[in-house]
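Researcher: Good morning. I'm working through a list of sequences from a screen, and I'd like to move beyond sequence-only analysis. For each chain I'm collecting a predicted structure so we can compare shapes side by side. This is the next one on the list. No need for commentary yet; just the structure.
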Amino acid sequence: MKKLLKGLIGVAIAATVSSAADYTIKVSHVVNANTPKGKAADFFAKRVGELTNGTVKVDVFPSAQLYKDEDVLRALQRGSNVQIAMPSLSVFTRITPEMQLFDLPFIFRDKEHLYKVMDGAVGDKLKKKVADKGFIAMEYWDAGFKNFSSSKKAILEPSDAKGQKFRSMSSKVLEEQFKAIGGNPQILPFSEVYSALQQGVVDAAENPYANFYNSKFHEVQSSYTLTDHGYLGYLVIISKKFWDEFPANLKPLVTQAMREATIYEREEAAKDDETIFAALKEYEANSKGKFKIYTLTDKQKEAWRVAMEPVYKKFYDVIGEDLIKETIATK
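Model: Good morning. Structure tokens for this chain:
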């Protein structure tokens, strides 16, 4: 009986050891797990486990538990404590100036055009430029188009921006964008934007639905104009050091899981936009005229494109004239 019991224990231990993952991938991101990016990171972890039959385990660390976006690139180059991250596209402009393409105003006609650029020749060229800096660029994830908001004057025509103080990310393209319409860019970290708007340090800002609503900017802005003039997104990258040493037979499975996660993330981002916009409309209805959402006419949008177009030429040498024109021409 004792021999039988020992044998059963031995089998159980062996099964536990054999079922343990042979490889672990740590994923770092800076947003809440309930956001589209957070949900997609967890979806990726689940699919990797399924596709590799548990050989590869993915641990996800949300809300900057491991690294902030500005620190994760250096950590990925080391490849020891994190293997995958999905920083904002703006983070890459420091190492790959051509990525400023995504900051250009009205460069994307709509979401369909954006995805064709990202998933096509232009997107591949930009991935290769990021790869030249020591990373493996995997997929583009979505955060949404930006819209203008203000507490001073509703921004419907380019002239409405004149003299307004706009919060800006640290981006030469965005600074030129605001200057082109007579605005005064004020560079501020995102964490300080709410108080800056509340105290009048800045009058206006640009944000997609999620950032605008979840950060409660609607409480300190009187208008939100659906311009869709700019874009925010992410690029999923993996440590080259880690990937070079990763088994060749497992790479296609991880790549497949990431492609599926990308489709899922974009679908979740679209759903999130619908839900949040509905919440904004409800807030508008209950605000007693203190907050209003505006939609531009085609004529107004064309006026914005004309006003912003000179910004492109200023960055021909930095981003590449051919790359900008290829983006515009993408069908």
